[in-house]
Amino acid sequence: MATNEFLPFATAGGANVQPQVDYAASASRTAGFSAGIAPSAEVNKAIRQAAFMASVLAQFTANITGNNVLDDGDVNGKVALLLSAVQGAGGRIRLSADTTFYVSTTGNDSTGTGLTVGSPWLTIQHALDVIQKSYDIAGWTATIQLADGTYTAGGTINGPFYGQGDVGGVVVAGNAGTPANVVISVGAGNCFSATQSGRLGVKNLKMTVTAGGGNCLYAAYSGLIWTEGPVEFAASSGTHIVAEANGTIHIGANYTISGSAPAHWNSQFNGTIFAGGFTITITNTPAFATAFAFTQSVGSMNVATITFVNAAAATGTRYNAQSNGTIYTNGGGANYLPGNVAGVTASGGQYV
To answer: Were 338 and a residue from 73, 114, 209, 311 both cysteine, which residue would form a disulfide, CB within 3.0 to 4.6 Å?
Structure first.
């Protein structure tokens, strides 16, 4: 049986403690003890109440986790154990304010609490899993703050966060001052993926996929990904941004394209991409072998009123709309999108 070293105090029959009714009415309970000699029964009452609940929480933690709960001064360790106990008991921690969780390339998914800069988790996926399984967002925003560095795995959510409302939610954030200092560099798979009605925000970071045909942002099956701060799309073996199968991606802030991909935007099978009212800056000479914007099978894009900086640096077909896919530019014109080859439409595809 696991050991609990947080023991109750003054619980024996006839213990020298002040009656509850007297303690509730005592001025010392609210103002604290004044200098001088404090009544021992009243002091014992205060100690017993604190020790009793500490012992209850510690015993709960020991019973659920099977780990010893030792009086060793390890605050971070006890927080992690208590969180494991809450998870094991099937309960959720309800947020009462916007909350930040911390991830670092020097963190630890086993011993880190994720609750302070000094005790970060190691992986984005672990942070997403803990929030999804153990927290009630309750309409607030949970920010996963990434320390500077290169992360070799991103994050996937396959379902909604408990308590996520129409505003707020879960946001993965990098360096607001220098987004390129936080790099999601995935060898295969997607940098960020949301499916099955999962919703995820991303901001202030750089994304690249080096192999395997994965994408930087991927939403499907009623999943939603949005950006609310600058991001950078570097070279990707797959498409930079993909929305398919009723997935939605909403780009809400200026961003940079610095690397090539088969396509920058791809919407298909009722997927939708919203992007407009901001600036996209193109650096280097990114090439898009399929097209900068590709849509098919009733996919749609609303990409009007974008200002492209250095658009001439990009090469490839400007757009390819086919099989009833639609690209809406609000009359942006044939040369509105980056590329050096004229766009095409086929089989009911529309570019307007």
So the answer is: 311
